[in-house]
Methyltransferase domain-containing protein
Amino acid sequence: MGNKTSKTSKKSTPLPSTNTQEDSDFRYIEGRRYHNVENVKYPLPNDDEELDRLHQQHFLFRYVWQRNFAAPVKHILNQDGTKVLDVGCGAGSWIFEMASNYPNTQFTGLDISPIQPSEIKPKNVNFVISNVLNRLPFENDTFDYIFQRLLFLALPKDRWPDVINELTRVLKPGGYLELMEINPIPLQMGPVSSQLFIAVEKMLQLRDLDPQIPYKLRSYFEQQGNLENITEEKNRLPFGPETGKLGQAAVENARLGFVHLKTYLLEATKIISEEFDNNLDISAKELYEFGSYQDTYCVYARKGNY
Ligand SMILES: C[S@@+](CC[C@H](N)C(=O)[O-])C[C@H]1O[C@@H](n2cnc3c(N)ncnc32)[C@H](O)[C@@H]1O
């Protein structure tokens, strides 16, 4: 619910951000820029090429779901002083759109890397650089709504319950938690795509990441014990021609994902670079022609008033 003690709108007061960049925030491998946080397994780079891919991915997801969020929070977002947290906010695609649509709400984007614009941003957005695998720098019961999307490459398999606990801790009683994930391994694939995605499976295994996470979110929410009205929604990100340009855009986004993960995918499978590039071109055609798709799940719930 909105913070009832905050009667005055904070619309004109820019929120402080902690996302100014330092050299030590990044490390560079083969010309690509990566995060520099010890013990964090997230393998994607965070340079301009990857941030562009994240923006494109945001538009794909918004199109597939026909909205930016699923939890019943629209009325909260229209109240003065409502506080929203976007965990693993990346380039800030979601938070910028939401902050423009809901100017009375205060949005905080949290990420391990200071990759979001620090100057040109809506006044009701601030960014905090922090690791969601640690205790978050917020008091108990701070946020009215917490959103987290696409962290399957970030959170080790056995840490999801801890993260859900920590997000629930900083959520206000009566507030909503919403997580959205995708199965990185498409279904209905052709032979070359199947081969190529074995590399993804191996990389996930080596990094202790969980491709099955979309299917487990609901039971993790149930196990948390303080979340109620748990709702799960499923959808598909289609690669095939049946959805017109959406399929082509999804194939292009997946292809870029492969290019950006190439160093780690080659490491995981020992296939040579030329074979990988060749298979990538064939796979892009196959994903479209076979009408492959990825399962995407969204789970949301309300924190009980205990
Ligand atoms: C695939 S991107 C998703 C970005 C955004 N949620 C979206 O949907 O557009 C994953 C983001 O999680 C961030 N990340 C990875 N590990 C993290 C961690 N342990 N704590 C906080 N953020 C993390 C990465 O830096 C990256 O920006």
Remarks:
- The radius of gyration is 19 Å.
